[in-house]
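Deliverable D2.4 — example input (structure tokens):
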């Protein structure tokens, strides 16, 4: 994690509360905007979990202190004017109190791809025992690649011989294993999305 020296920040300019934009480290999704005072920033760097200063309650608070949906910090950057932070973090569940992935979602529906990729990234970071995803990561890239190949063949078979419902199910299995492979190789969903956008312009 990139460490920010608190004296780098123009505290007077931001009235002692610096805006902190939080972005999902796995998907690139903007999750929320909060404000940090100097102590909240120090706590964030100390704990590697995001802290804010509540302007309404006039106190420090750790994101997820009640819900458990903490934000685990991957990196922190200070902008060129020294008055805004960009926090890259891995969310442990929905970020918004309304149950959405991001506070910028206006409906309760979430982006299923982003949600799945975030769960896979969390499994890779924590490697919980008994998790199928953990077992895939432990097996290595060759075994994961083989599973992707097998699932791709299942999709082809379903398309040729089976029902629409079965094709949908097999497609989900393929996407899951493909996302595991991407996570194993350090490829983010944001990078995949950016490449798709480049190709769409051609």
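Example output (designed residues):
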């Amino acid at each position: 994690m990139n460490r920010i020296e608190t004296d780098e920040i123009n505290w007077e300019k931001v009235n002692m509360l610096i805006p902190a934009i939080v972005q999902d480290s796995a998907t690139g999704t903007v999750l929320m905007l909060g404000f940090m005072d100097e102590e909240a920033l120090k706590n964030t760097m100390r704990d590697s979990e995001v802290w804010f200063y509540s302007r309404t309650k006039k106190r420090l608070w750790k994101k997820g202190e009640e819900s458990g949906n903490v934000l685990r910090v991957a990196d922190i950057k200070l902008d060129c004017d020294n008055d805004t932070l960009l926090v890259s973090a891995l969310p442990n569940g929905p970020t918004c109190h309304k149950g959405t992935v991001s506070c910028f979602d206006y409906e309760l529906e979430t982006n299923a791809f982003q949600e799945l990729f975030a769960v896979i990234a969390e499994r890779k970071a924590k490697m919980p025992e008994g998790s199928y995803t953990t077992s895939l990561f432990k097996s290595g890239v060759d075994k994961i690649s083989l599973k992707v190949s097998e699932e791709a063949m299942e999709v082809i078979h379903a398309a040729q011989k089976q029902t629409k419902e079965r094709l949908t199910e097999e497609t989900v299995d393929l996407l899951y294993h493909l996302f595991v492979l991407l996570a194993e190789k350090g490829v983010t969903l944001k990078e995949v999305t950016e490449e798709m956008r480049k190709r769409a312009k051609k």
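The chain has a mean pLDDT of 90.
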